[in-house]
Structures are given as C-alpha cells and as structure tokens.
C-alpha cells in the first residue's frame, strides 16, 4: 500500500495555492467584526431558517456569488436551552436540492440532516428536536453527498449554542456580541479580484484552500472588546484548512471547552490547532488594554510563516463583566475504556485518488497494478502529479467565469475516489452496525496526510494519538479530531440511527467527504 502512496506531502510542497494576497498584518481600513444575529425559538418553539442565494463582499473590492441562512452569507447563532423542544424550520429557497445537518447536536438520525434528508427546492423541512446534551458550541451546514463542499463554501452554515443558563454562576462571560464572540474561521480564493470556488484535481486531493482568511465572512476584521475577560467561540468552518492560532503578543488562549462541552483541565495554550469542523471555546484577558492580533501558521508545511487572521482592540467604553478566569469548571469525567465492547479500524484511504493521478501521468511513468518501485522520492511523485493534472485542470476550468459559484465536487471528480471504510461512500451500503448505548474503540490510521475525523450522533474521547495521551484541551468529549498517524478513540453510541437515515462518519475536509471519504452506521 505504501509503495502506491501519493506523496501528498511532497506534492503539497510543489503546489502553490497562494496568489500572494494573503496578509501578515492588519490593514488600515479593516472592517469591524460582523457578529451573527442571535436568534431563539419563538413562542411556539419554532426557529425559521431560510436558505437563499445572494452576493457578499469578503473583502473590499471582491464581491462574489454566495449563499446564506436568513441572509446572504453564513447564518444566525441559534441559542437553544437544554431540555427544550424545538422545531427547526428549514426553508430551501436556493433553487437546488440541499440538506441541513446539525453538527454536534445529539438528535436521532432521521432528524440529523445527513445526505438522506434531502430538502427539495421550495420545500420546508421541519424536524422537531429535543435538546438533550451539555452546554456546547455547535453548528449547522448542508450535507448533500457529492455537493457539501460547494454548498458550505457558498456560505450555508450557522451556529448553535446549547445553554443551561448557568454560565453566570460559572463565572463565564455571557453578553453576546460584547464579551462572548463567535468566530467562524474560513478561507477564500480570489482570482482576478473575484472569489472563486473552482477546485481542480489537486484541490480534491489536498482539500480546497483559499488565499485569504476570513472571520465571520470578512477578511481581517477588528473586534472591539471590553477591558476584561472575553470568551471566544472558535469554529473552523473552512473546507480544508487547519488553523494553527496564536495571539501576536504571546498571551495565552485559556481553552475551557471543545466540541462536546467543558474539558477536564482548562488551561492556557499558546498555539491552538483547530481543524475543519472542530470547535474550541477559550477566554482571553484584555484587561491590560493593549490591542492584539490573532495569527495562524500560513499552511501545514511548517515553514513558520504566519498570517493575520483578525485584530482585537480593547475599548474602555464597553462594559466589563468578568475580571478573572474561572479556576475550575465541571469535569466531564472519563468513561472506563474497558467498557468498550469491540474494536474496529479504519484507514483514511487516498489510494484511489492516487490511482487517478497516476493514470493521468505521462505514460511510462507508471505500471498499473504494481508498486512505484524506484519512485519513492516524493519530489518525483509530486511533479508527476503536476504534469498529470494539466489536462484535467484545463477541462475543469473551461466555461467557468470568475465569480461563478462552481459546480458540485462530485461532477468534477470523475475517477477521484477516496474511502473511509474500505470502499468509497455508497448511500445504499451500511458500513457499521453499533449497539445503541455501547462504547467501542476505533483505531484510525492516516496514510499520506492528516485528516479531521468526524462522527454524527456519537461523541468520543481521544485515548491516544500516536501512542500518547491527548493534550488537555483535546481531552474532553469531541466529535471532530485531527488525525495524523494513528489514533484510538473511545466512542459512545448514544443516539438511535435507522437504516433509512444512517449516521455518517467521515473526513471533514469537505472535498474528501464529497469524493467518498465517508461511511455510515446504524445502531441496533
Ligand atoms: Cu460537519 Cu458530517 O459534518
Ligand atoms: Cu456532523
Ligand atoms: Cu481527508
């Protein structure tokens, strides 16, 4: 298997996604941080979400076709009380099929909004859900098989906060938009001044990465914050980019919660990696009054180059509610791994994409069905892929104009297939049956690159990553984990999944998901 490897790391090194417009510093005319509207269920317990298309300016001078929820890009933040019964009325005014998945909400699979819950154009899908989980920061986005990447990139995503009303007692900031700020981290690709989602073969292999970074839909915003403790709710809503965050003056991010709620040991972190789909909540101390920039490493190649994400500017006019970092929050406890009733293993399989790239290579450079003997040098393989992709690259861009919202990945990907459970995703094949209420240990293995693993309707604890226990901020309940090498997860299957609407598990690099790096399970 390894001999057939793609050499993705090396290929990535020769591939230059940057158009030279990424920024290392705040710009003088930086826009204020947009704060998503906060909405709560109406008197009848209904939340209305209208999906529609529009246009949106990600940066000055670059407007693009976009889509949004109750607006033209991204959507509101829904605040839902634990225990509430809520109708999520999703109106599809997009003019195309979609689905809406509640990423991180624990609901039965028929309400989960996966690829089997298609909402036709003009229809409204109204699942009635009961909120039954600890306080946590979650989100929602479409999940059309083969078209999730494009629809999410257009802007169809919003936020969900599950609350138990006790954050005041806990000493946590809770004034939305003032000391409690959601930050949706994404990237865009700008070609000739226009935002374009037009992935080529290499983008399908690596995941589509943009060349400008946006927060809540705009490049490099500035947030005015009170001169006290501020809560940041971080969501990586990018299709493929990992964010490796740091504050420019070295002050720590005090991470106290991740995907599934509070972590066991909240603590200061100087560099925080957030993978696609992953959430972290952290506290930052702005009492000193000085402005600070949020930075990320430029890419995953560890060149050390940093890019500007956004800026925080303390404002003495804003009310300070919290002046100290709470020493301790609820400990989520740790289930005993010996509760696990079985082990399974899965490989993030890029092999079929590799075959595609090799098929495209000039003849004589490969022998089908045989290993790549004598071609173990990553550089050869990388350049071969580059040559191999030219035809595809041209044909895929034909007839597309800048600003075009693009075509479904599935339509571009003829021949590119990846797999999560042995074979590329098949809507009609159940890959796993798990016992409802049970624990299992899943061993996950990557081959050529890191992949963010995500599972619906279940949550997990990381037992090991490459043989080591997880770092404290990765040690709580999670639904996404970045896997690079080998990891063991202890998974709790606690929501029911039927055969007509199985739950998904997949890579959260959305292009990988769309080309088949996804599988499905039911509970029995
Ligand atoms: Cu956020 Cu299956 O996805
Ligand atoms: Cu999900
Ligand atoms: Cu992946």
TrEMBL record:
<comment type="subunit">
    <text>Monomer.</text>
</comment>
<feature type="domain" description="Plastocyanin-like">
    <location>
        <begin position="59"/>
        <end position="165"/>
    </location>
</feature>
<dbReference type="Pfam" id="PF00394">
    <property type="entry name" value="Cu-oxidase"/>
</dbReference>
<dbReference type="InterPro" id="IPR011707">
    <property type="entry name" value="Cu-oxidase-like_N"/>
</dbReference>
<keyword id="KW-0479">Metal-binding</keyword>
<dbReference type="InterPro" id="IPR045087">
    <property type="entry name" value="Cu-oxidase_fam"/>
</dbReference>
<feature type="domain" description="Plastocyanin-like">
    <location>
        <begin position="222"/>
        <end position="287"/>
    </location>
</feature>
<dbReference type="InterPro" id="IPR006311">
    <property type="entry name" value="TAT_signal"/>
</dbReference>
<dbReference type="InterPro" id="IPR001117">
    <property type="entry name" value="Cu-oxidase_2nd"/>
</dbReference>
<dbReference type="InterPro" id="IPR011706">
    <property type="entry name" value="Cu-oxidase_C"/>
</dbReference>
<dbReference type="InterPro" id="IPR008972">
    <property type="entry name" value="Cupredoxin"/>
</dbReference>
<dbReference type="Pfam" id="PF07732">
    <property type="entry name" value="Cu-oxidase_3"/>
</dbReference>
<dbReference type="Pfam" id="PF07731">
    <property type="entry name" value="Cu-oxidase_2"/>
</dbReference>
<keyword id="KW-0560">Oxidoreductase</keyword>
<feature type="domain" description="Plastocyanin-like">
    <location>
        <begin position="414"/>
        <end position="523"/>
    </location>
</feature>
<dbReference type="InterPro" id="IPR002355">
    <property type="entry name" value="Cu_oxidase_Cu_BS"/>
</dbReference>
<protein>
    <recommendedName>
        <fullName>Multicopper oxidase CueO</fullName>
        <ecNumber>1.16.3.4</ecNumber>
    </recommendedName>
</protein>
